[in-house]
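Practice problem 4.
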């Protein structure tokens, strides 16, 4: 693989990793919100 192709692949991998990390973070936040709402409902009863 020449330098340009190798640089391009590196950037592609970086972009894919960032998308994955953002999706993961967003999933974690949603789970946290869900848990907090569940907790709140349990304490109200």
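Answer key:
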């Amino acid at each position: 693989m020449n330098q340009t192709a190798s640089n391009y692949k590196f950037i592609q991998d970086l972009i894919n990793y960032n998308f994955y990390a953002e999706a993961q973070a967003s999933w974690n936040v949603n789970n946290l919100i869900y848990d907090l709402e569940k907790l709140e409902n349990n304490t109200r009863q």
